[in-house]
């Protein structure tokens, strides 16, 4: 949520800031703004509701000069999307400008105190309260900006990533974070600032990830200075990022989402590289090697996640319980963190998050750690908050995912959870050797089978045209494919705005069957596995009520293919690996329906890629 970009150095800041905002558009936003200090030390703030392109149009005839600046894309929390509520926000004197990602939970109390002292507010945001508070402390106590920021942040309850400019001190940017990502790019006589590395990679591969309650001073005439809120100096660790600029471009595809759907075979190869060794017939995860005793001693696993990652967790539960014979619970992180769960040192909590910054999942991790649980993180974004706050874990290594609706991250998460199950099952000796070898070999074949499914893209695009009329969809699956039905329904509603529900097929009789008529498309995952006969019965129940069935079947199916209205045939695989194959046509179906409806596929309304607030 929200995007932060900053620059200070010798170059003109505005082009860097605007390019950076465009790199962060995938995070989701409803307004954009920029603040620049020019040679005359004027602080110019420009804001616009809508896209970054609207901001560019707005500043067309304005002064955009200056070698220092900050910029922001806002996803509305406090106050409607509009120019006044957009960031950056001025202080009352006009000396300070601030951008902010996160939520100040005690903003109302702080605002009332400031209003009592005569401060006036123009916006409805919690962010304006923070910039006014900083100025009040700076003025009242006659402090430098850095000290005022630290004191103000000690008064704040909530999450924040901020950047602050003071036109009286044009040679620095003050930045700070707590529970919201912020990364500093280190160049030659220049610094960059961003919510993630994507706006920085074009200019430098050297970065510093700020930790909670750390404040950075970006001054190109000095080394990067980092202190915590209690003025204790921090030695910033400069890391080299491995991110290619080409990964952030569409590469000839009309949308990032379609590109990322097609990247999945290569992404899974990257995910398994060095971990799945077919010749030696084994799967290796360094986290399991390093923490084998702790993982094997677990009385249960608790998977915490949100959205698509939660669906991956449901598949992980099935795989781990089946092969490892360890009980697994799957929790929405947003509920888990507030319900006082029973956790102790015998538990292993697996936190799954694409961004590694999901606020509810991060809070669940912190709570579980305090209760003594061992934390295993599964993330995509290297250096993000969850990997830095867990005991161990595994990256999914699928590359940056720009489309808001997750695709390759989902299959990457399922793959890592499957590898984790195989590693643990082998160590626990709860899996037959022949079955283990068969699984390892078949897992290595999945990327090639994905490629076969992707060849159906044109046909699925044609099929999608039929369903743009629909107002509702039902997705049904059994066993390993029930979470795939949930994920397919989520993809459709995220990007096409068609209401869709995913259900266990047998549960259809307990309510959803009342909805079925000739106008209700029903997607049924009906592959040739142990649940085939049960799914066949469910399809017959749908057809008896004139429902329109789109069946996902195994190649060569001769029974369901004759019952269904439309059929998508997939290459066969082992039942526990089917979600990696069956999810692909559902991603393509959602994508093409949304395109046919003229929707903004990569940036669907109201959604954000990285949900860094509650």
Task: Explain what the structure shows.
The chain is α/β, with parallel strands linked by helices. The protein has 3 domains: 3-246, Aminohydrolase, N-terminal nucleophile (Ntn) domain (Glutamine Phosphoribosylpyrophosphate, subunit 1, domain 1); 250-455, Glucose-6-phosphate isomerase like protein, domain 1 (Rossmann fold, 3-Layer(aba) Sandwich), CATH 3.40.50; 456-605, Glucose-6-phosphate isomerase like protein, domain 1 (Rossmann fold). The chain contains 20 helices and 27 strands. Strands 3-2-4-1-10-9-11-15 form an 8-stranded antiparallel sheet, with helices on one face. Strand 16 and strand 17 form a beta hairpin. Helix 7 (264-272) packs antiparallel against helix 15 (433-454), helix 10 (307-324) packs parallel to helix 14 (408-428) and helix 15 runs parallel beside helix 20. The chain is globular, with a radius of gyration of 26 Å. The mean pLDDT is 92.
Distance N to C terminus:
11 Å
- CATH fold label of the largest domain: Glutamine Phosphoribosylpyrophosphate, subunit 1, domain 1
Mean pLDDT: 92
Which stretches are poorly predicted, pLDDT < 50 over at least 5 residues?
none
Quaternary structure annotation: single chain
Domain count: the total is 3
Question: What's the overall geometry?
Answer: globular
Spatial order of the strands forming the largest sheet: 3-2-4-1-10-9-11-15
User: Helical residue percent?
Assistant: 25-40%
Please work out how many helical segments DSSP would assign.
20
Strand content: 15-25%
Q: Briefly, what CATH class of the largest domain?
A: Alpha Beta
How many extended strands?
A: 27
Rg, Å, rounded: 26 Å
CATH superfamily of the largest domain: Aminohydrolase, N-terminal nucleophile (Ntn) domain
Biggest β-sheet description: 8 strands, antiparallel
Structural class: alpha/beta
CATH architecture label of the largest domain: 4-Layer Sandwich
């Amino acid at each position: 949520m929200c995007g932060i970009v900053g620059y200070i150095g010798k170059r003109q800041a505005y082009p860097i800031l605007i390019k950076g905002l465009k790199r962060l558009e995938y995070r989701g936003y409803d307004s954009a703004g920029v603040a620049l200090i020019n040679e005359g030390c004027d602080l110019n703030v420009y804001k616009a509701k809508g896209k970054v392109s609207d901001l560019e149009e707005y500043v067309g005839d304005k002064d955009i000069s200056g070698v220092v600046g900050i910029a922001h894309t806002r996803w509305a929390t406090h106050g409607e999307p509009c120019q006044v509520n957009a960031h950056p926000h001025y202080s009352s004197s006009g000396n300070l400008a601030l951008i902010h990602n996160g939520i100040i939970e005690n903003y109302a109390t702080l605002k009332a105190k400031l209003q009592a002292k005569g401060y006036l507010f123009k916006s409805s945001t919690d962010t304006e309260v923070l910039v006014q508070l900083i100025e009040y402390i700076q003025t009242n106590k006659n402090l430098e900006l850095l000290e005022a920021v630290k004191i103000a942040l000690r008064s704040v309850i909530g999450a924040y990533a901020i950047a602050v400019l003071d036109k009286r001190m044009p040679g620095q940017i003050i930045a700070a974070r707590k529970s919201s990502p912020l990364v500093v790019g280190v160049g030659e006589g220049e610094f960059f600032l961003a919510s993630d590395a994507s706006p920085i990679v074009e200019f430098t591969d050297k970065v510093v990830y700020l930790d909670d309650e750390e404040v950075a001073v970006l001054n190109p005439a000095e080394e990067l200075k980092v202190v915590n809120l209690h003025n204790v100096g921090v030695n910033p660790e400069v890391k080299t990022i491995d991110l290619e600029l080409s990964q952030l471009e569409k590469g000839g595809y009309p949308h990032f989402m379609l590109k990322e759907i097609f990247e999945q075979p290569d992404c899974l190869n990257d995910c398994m590289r060095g971990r799945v060794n077919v010749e030696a017939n084994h799967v290796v995860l360094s986290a399991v090697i390093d923490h084998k005793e702790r993982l094997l001693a677990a009385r249960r696993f608790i998977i915490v996640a949100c959205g698509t990652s939660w669906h991956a967790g449901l598949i992980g539960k099935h795989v781990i319980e089946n092969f490892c014979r360890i009980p697994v619970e799957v929790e929405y992180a947003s509920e888990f963190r507030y319900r006082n769960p029973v956790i102790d040192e015998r538990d292993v909590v697996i936190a799954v998050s694409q961004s590694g910054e999901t606020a509810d999942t991060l809070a669940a991790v912190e709570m579980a750690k305090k209760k003594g649980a061992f934390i295993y993180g599964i993330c995509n974004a290297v250096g993000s908050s969850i990997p830095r706050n867990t005991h161990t874990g595994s990256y999914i290594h699928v590359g940056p995912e720009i489309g808001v609706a997750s695709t390759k991250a989902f299959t990457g998460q399922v793959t890592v959870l499957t590898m984790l199950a195989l590693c643990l099952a082998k160590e626990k000796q709860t899996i037959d050797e022949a079955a283990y070898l068969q699984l390892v070999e078949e897992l290595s074949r999945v990327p090639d089978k994905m490629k076969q499914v992707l060849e159906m893209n044109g046909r699925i695009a044609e099929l999608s045209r039929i369903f743009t009329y629909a107002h509702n969809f039902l997705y049904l699956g059994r066993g390993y494919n029930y979470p795939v039905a949930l994920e397919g329904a989520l993809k459709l509603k995220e990007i096409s705005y068609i209401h869709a529900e995913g259900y266990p097929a047998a549960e259809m009789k307990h309510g959803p069957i009342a909805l079925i008529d000739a106008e209700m498309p029903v997607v049924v995952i009906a592959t040739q596995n142990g649940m085939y006969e049960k799914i066949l019965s469910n399809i017959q129940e749908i057809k008896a009520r004139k429902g329109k069935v789109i069946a996902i079947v195994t190649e060569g199916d001769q029974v369901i293919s004759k019952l269904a209205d439309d059929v998508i045939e997939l290459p066969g695989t082992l039942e526990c690996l089917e979600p990696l194959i069956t999810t692909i046509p559902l991603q393509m179906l959602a994508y093409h329906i949304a395109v046919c409806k003229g929707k903004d596929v990569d940036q669907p309304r109201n959604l954000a890629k990285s949900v860094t607030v509650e």
